[in-house]
Amino acid sequence: MSLDFILKHEGNNSKGAVLLFHGLTGSPFELKKYGQFLFNSGYDVFAECLPGHGEKFEEIYTVKYQDWLDFAYSRFERLKTEYKNVFVSGLCLGAVLALAVGIKYREQVTGIISLSTTLYLDGWRLPWYKCFMPIALNTILRFYYTYPECEPHGVKNLKTRNAVKKLLTKGDVGMNDFPMTGFKELLELSAYIRKNLSKVVSPILIIHSKEDDLTSTKSANAVNKNISSKDKEYIILYDSYHMVLYDNEKEFVFEKSLRFLDSHIKQTAKTEDFVCI
């Protein structure tokens, strides 16, 4: 069963394209409601499983962060040939990849929406022995240890959290564990992004929870401080955890995202706009 989704309006009736990237060990399923909202608001939406994710979960043990970059670049290049306005957005690892697209393609990116950007693994949910993580990441241990997905599953809202737990139990919308190999690739990718944040010049909306259980506001602060974008907005949430698209402030996140998209559309000149003299 494919978890990819592409939502397109008939003809040329969309405002533009929004390319979405999901989080580490997740799937496009976590972006579905967000994507549907943006589609209903006039945008064509594209979300596909990242390399190492999807039906063959075992591939997460061999994927490299360059595979994620190549995937993100190829999807953006494809959309850029079809749309004047191409926005990129993502959650967790997906937000890091959205920034990567901004670093490489600069002004070609109409805008970036960075949600729960994970440049550091320093959230309050991580266990006390996280200080030993570098040892495991740089030895053969990374192929044998996985960090179990556990409470609160990135969600503060209790009802939604229980629903997420049931979906994870089924095993068809994401992985139940975080492989150390995936952590290693994410951190190496994040190190590359941090070194190149100054190359981001596109308009950007950064949204991060004060109580993010996986990555603290240190990540979002680094983005906000080091990018070169003159048009930027940084919003901190106070009633959500990591999964901001499903938590208590999801409607606010949806509406702020739409407002950002609508305010940064580049208008295409029409023939009737010109007068021959």
* Helix content bin: 25-40%
Characterize the biggest β-sheet. 7 strands, mixed
Distance linking N and C termini = 59 Å
Percent strand equals 5-15%
Structural class estimated from helices and strands = alpha/beta
Q: How many runs of DSSP E, i.e. beta strands?
A: 9
Strand order across the largest sheet? 1-3-2-4-5-8-9
> What's the CATH topology label?
Rossmann fold
Shape field: globular
Could you spell the SSE succession in H and E letters? Answer: EEHEHEHEHEHEHEHEH
Ranges where pLDDT stays below 50 over 5 or more residues in a row are 139-147, 269-277
Number of spatially distinct domains: 1
Q: Examine the secondary-structure arrangement and name the CATH architecture.
A: 3-Layer(aba) Sandwich
CATH hierarchy, class:
Alpha Beta
Mean pLDDT: 84
What is the overall number of helices?
8
Identify the CATH homologous superfamily.
Alpha/Beta hydrolase fold, catalytic domain
Task: Provide key terms for this protein.
277 residues; alpha/beta; Rossmann fold; two-stranded antiparallel sheet; 8 helices
Overview of this structure, please?
There is one protein chain. With 277 residues, the protein is of the alpha/beta class. 35% of the residues lie in helices and 15% in strands. The strands form two sheets. Strands 1-3-2-4-5-8-9 form a seven-stranded mixed β-sheet, sandwiched between helices. A two-stranded antiparallel sheet has the order 6-7.
